[in-house]
Amino acid sequence: MKLAKTGFILLTLLFSTNAFAQQATLKMAKLKYNGGGDWYANKTALPNLAKFCNETLNTNFSEQDASVEVGSPELFNYAYLYMTGHGNVVFSPSEAENLRNYLMAGGFLHIDDNYGLDAYIRLEMKKVFPELEFIELPFDHPIYKQKYTFENGIPKIHEHDNKPPQGFGLIYEGKLVCFYSYETDLGNGWEDQRVHDNPEEVRQKALKMGANIISYAFTQN
């Protein structure tokens, strides 16, 4: 694990240079968790996000679909973790510790509520960072003002309960280590158009917000 972690830290340091985006292949993965929730939802989302970032941010993400278990040492081989689903989530103590170490080492987790995840993920992330609380990010937060500007914060992509979309964060030692998109379902917008039949304008908003998340995750101080 130490070798994997060291390699990951080097990747995150190098990512901030323009040359790195052209020299190395970064990887993103869906987080596989226990508890019975459908961690595998939004099957076409990450390949489409990777492709969009490569085209608009000059990154070099692999466009292959990938997943990684939360307790695996392979976690440290991924530059960005995406977590979604509709139901129950359970982290064992060792899984919570592994995820905490990943995030403390420079990793980034994006939790995207696909509807029904909220009650579970708030409890489980307390196992990861007992000392932290999710805070709502203001509309003027830099994550909304990267390559693309979202004056009203995170965009609404998919309607569930007629609630406004919200973006929350866990901030560890001054750094945003986990971004939580709630009541928006960005992953639905990243999927192939045929999956949810979203208008192209809506899909573009989702992909642009995703690109902002990626950009911010690897350029924040």
UniProtKB/TrEMBL annotation:
**Leader peptide range in chain numbering:** 1-21
In what residue span(s) does the DUF4159 domain sit? Answer: 28-218
Q: Enumerate the UniProt keywords alphabetically.
A: Signal
What is the species of this protein?
Roseivirga pacifica
- Entry keyword annotation includes Signal: yes
Q: What is this protein called?
A: DUF4159 domain-containing protein
Q: Name one Pfam family in it.
A: DUF4159
Q: Which InterPro entries match?
A: DUF4159
Where on the tree of life does the source sit, at the highest rank? Bacteria
